[in-house]
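Data availability excerpt. The first of two example chains:
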Amino acid sequence: MKNTANMPLSAWRPIATDTFLYGVPHYPEHVDESYWARDAQRMVQCGFNVVRLGEFAWHLFEPVEGVYDFDLFDRAIEILAAHGLGIIMCTPTATPPRWLTEKYPQVLRVDSDGRRMHHGSRQHADTTHPLFRAFSRLITEAMATHFRDNPHVIGWQTDNELNTSMPTCWSEAAESGFRSFCERKYTTIEALNAAWGGNFWATAYRSFDQIVLPHSGAPAPCGPGHVQDYHRFLAYATMQFQRDQVDILRRVNDDWFVFHNIGLIADVDFRNGFADDLDFLGYDVYPLLHEEKWRIGGPAYQQANFLDRCRGFAGNFIVPEQQSGLGSQPMFSTLVPEPGEMRRMALSSIARGADGLMFFRWRPAHFGAEIYWMGLLDHDDIPRRRFDEACQVGRDIAAIREPLMGTRVRIDVGIAAADFDNEIAHTTYPLGLPSPQDDATLLHRICFERGVATGFVHPEDELARLKVFYVPHWLIWKAGWSEAIRRFAEAGGTVIIGARSGTRDVHNHVIRQPAPGPELSELTGVTIEEFGRLAAPDQDALTSRDMPPAGHFVPTERPTESSRRRYRFNFMGRELTAGHCYEIVEPAADTEVLARWSNRFLAGRAVITRRRLGRGQLLYLGTYLSDELAPVLLDWLVENAAVAPLIDDLPAGIDVTMREADDRRLLFVMNTEHREYRLDTLPQGTDLLSGNRVDGTLTLAGYDCAVIRLE
């Protein structure tokens, strides 16, 4: 199960395999050995073919420095393998043992307040520290050498959810590494000073040894270029930490596949070495945890958004951890999947690009910081409804595996994403505005709700597969993107460029030419005379976090209609209120105005324009998306860009996604609600899960799903 060599990263990149990895993370070290054979028997009953082991067991693998002991896992693997289960081993570097942190406390991570982390949790070691990297290489080498000839070990996971607990580090080692990174990047201190704007606030340096980490509010903020390079360094250090392990695993046994399981995405630059080093990526999927954290669109939408965004980094993926029950640590707990919902969430992951899936976890722990993170079995070792649903998913996978493997997820409306520099550039100086991801979510969500095939795509991907490509307000515009977008439009595609795009350079400096810069101005046929900040559409004023300090301004009465400063524009025959940002757009002679501002000092000026390019078109949006604008923009795309939903009259609560190859199309239809739905506008085909023919009509019980192979 390895990716095709040298296949470029793309939202459509497949995993070159005919094996669907279905299984579970398992911790045989948490229970008495008398459980092991029964566990293996039950795993086979679920239809599992793989088990993940060892990601938190460094203290068992190396109980004393330089002394290795693999006996417990050798015995566990022997029992699992006797039941036909393949083994994924994990490098255990997320939890270094106490002997290491006690003898070498300098390897502990340091937070932004200068506090050194303590032993007793996880991810407490500094992955930028040369000594910790050395110990990580040693345990990886020892494990790889020990399991090299074990035929049951088929692949490896590196570490566990890198950067999830604390992505940043402010240690002396991190500062030293940052200085070396900067010297390699800029070569001369003069070049660095120019890139960081050293003549502002006397922040120039005379040598690389003088460089400091960009501490926030110490007491005032650091420059955007300085902060941007710090996060570039963190991403580079993360990639190098993983590469140490990957190189060892590849050298010892190149038949193994190697992946990493991403948790919360922070300071990982997927397209600058991290994903290229791996055979494929893995993403841990906890929809009800996402709902608890963000509460936007419900857990079904949160899962769709997360997985579509992840697929944009490198293509199809596996899910090493899929939520099966209550998820909990002492500071939070999630909702519990209702009967049938665990299966629906699993099939949603498969629908959006998963070519492997493991339910987390086999059974809950009886001790430690996750005693109520439930698994397929309960604490009393009795299999109940979650176990039964895992068995059902096993039957579902068996029914769809053959036509599924080798397919990609269809995307008609692509949204620009997966560019690390643009993700970070916004955070370095956000102006109180939504991030590009926040903006993109509004278009993605309305496409999800209406059943339009959508996804996240990098500008260097194969844009010809799309009908529409939307670029949210990407501050940094890189060489080569304009030509790729021009070719896409001239061939018949529709491009939409969002406000503020191209207004900073690669060093995070504001450009010195009229926005959106020479390349984008020539491409879009517009220049920007002025921009300004607006309140969100549902606010009377800028948010409290953006107000001056206490004592500078105190409102004495409710805002009047005049003081609200609502800026409106007319588009598609509807009067819409702008939010977050306005621009005064000056169109060129060959550029058509689709919408104009309709009030206040902006009245009559262009806000949305269109320039024809070959058989296609390019729109410029002189404001940010909003809950009002996103659906109207989609209406326009349906009328003017050949965009259509996968099925007509999609009921709220039904999620539809298509996976396809040149010779087949699989339509996933998933009921994300607890109540029954009847659909009357489905295309003809066969539901692979039930074996029944679908002739336009289908009834789905609560949380039920269908996978229709279309005729």
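And the second chain:
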Amino acid sequence: MDKKVNANSKNEQLEQFRANDKDKAMTTNQGLKVSEDEFSLKNGERGPTLLEDFHFREKMTHFDHERIPERVVHARGYAAHGEFELYESMHTYTKAKFLQTPGTKTPVFVRFSTVIGSRGSGELARDARGFATKFYTEEGNYDLVGNNIPVFFIQDGIKFPDLVHAMKPEPHNEIPQAATAHDTFWDFIANNQESAHMIMWAMSDRAIPRSFRMMEGFGVNTFRFVNAEGKSHFVKFHWKPVLGVHSVVWDEAQKLNGKNPDFHRQDLYEAIASGNYPEFELGVQMIEEKDEFKFDFDILDATKLWPEEEVPVKIIGKMTLNRNVDNVFAETEQVAFHPGNVVPGIDFTNDPLLQGRLFSYTDTQLIRLGGPNFHELPINRPVCPFHNNQRDGYGRQTINVGQVSYHNNSLAGNTPSPVSEEEGGYTHYQEKVDGHKVRARSESFKDHFSQATMFWNSMSDPEKQHIINAFSFELGKCKEKTVREQVVEMIMNVDVDLACQVAKNLGITIQATNIPTNSKVSPALSQSNSAKKPDTRKIAVLVSEGFAGELIATLDALKAKGTMIETVSDHLGAIKGADGSLLEANHTFSTADSVLFDAVYVASPQGTTPTYQKEAAYFVKEAYAHFKPIAASFYGGQLLDELGLKGQAGVITEETENSFVESFIYAIAEHRFWNRAV
């Protein structure tokens, strides 16, 4: 197959649906040119509007029906187009065509999201993040529908409505929005302790990512790879961000939701628009069928992960997001994902959470998108042709010709007809299943705490403190003391020190009776071991009139290292340097805030105005309190002197022994400096 055609096929298909209204005459939806769009048709200038005004009726009716139901979960989302390029053939493990030939490029569409909040909620809520990828392959659409956390709250799909009801705003007052810091959520956790592992992730820094570009993605459930010979491997999917995995701090997240509730989507949009395309490598963990039961956890349990030290992640390709959507509603909101959208070579397992998902997604799309034809919307259409006997329904776009719409038939030569596995027909893996019909759960699913403890053991000291703080904040918002006590009692099974510190913060007295003995660790779980790069990090440069002309060369050197420079001053527009050189101020102190940036660079000149100095001081102190890199050169060091910040970890000045630019770049790559005095 022509790889270039495959890579561009989705873009070419979407092109026919794009509409650019610029410089076009206005028409009705029937193509009739409109002569007036400001005034409705009336009986006299001050008379009543006439019912015969078909243009007014069409315009208003369409407006009245513009909104569709938002997703019950994952309502707040943002998306982008891209392509996936395969590094090495996976033919040994799967017959999926897009995973056969190295260099094959497959168009993709990725939607990132928060789980709990409504479409209008802030993006920096403490929450899991959705990471859903649609591959437009030549064999049909394949959807890898996952999260940025590798495990889930529940083990069986039948409990999903209970979980969502508990985490959503409480029904009697519809409070709080996009938050788990309330009684019903924590009451659910305390009384459904299979959630113990997931809640450790949710209270960690993973739940407040720096950006969509800097978070991992996981398929969560256990799937199968099946090769051409019919051999099966259990498989879990991973997306590894090339920029590493990084987060914000909680105080920063809360402020970001006020300063810029669109922070994550704006970050993604601007990165792609500027050519800093987000990249994620696809990795797979695989287990042979014969090894299904050799681990100290059940590999089908969605509340468990496969430690990377025991089951290595094999990197097989890279996804690059290189095009923003043209229309958020038509693409981001109308895209319909479903873990049941698979291609030959990818199959399911008996994971009971996955089995529940296989029913739920299609059922959800039917109500959201108005009927059974949502697959015909441009963003959902496969790049390969599709033929079957399904007909009619809301929103039908295909015009089926001929008299036959059933199988078997003789009038159309018994077409469309099924094809064999050798011809590309999908066949399910023939797993032998034998058992009694029961409503029960496997004994191997009953360990709820070992991996929660492993997660805790694997955290660095700052990460552990953040988890303690998160539990203390969330439970501190619960009004019922009994709920707080139940949760503390539950986390005693995870780690006694964790439980004791949270209990102390909540004023709860506990008896340290349950002492976990699990000392297992997985270094891959700690963000402190993630890749550290300065690329695309955003630097706020605080500057005012009379800046040293040499500053421009320094900024150019920082840009050359891949950082993004934005200037902040006491006014917008041109700022003149001491030598007559000019800088353009992108922000003022009223339109920018330190939480919007990864690092701060103070380059104020000698004799800076008191007003500027006061605003700059607040900006710097907040960044320092959030453990961010701070630098100062020329006369900017005077401000750091006044604030007593010189010599602290991650504070770079011209007195630094190494090159100023190199030292600052290293500090930016480090992301945060947890050991500084605050």
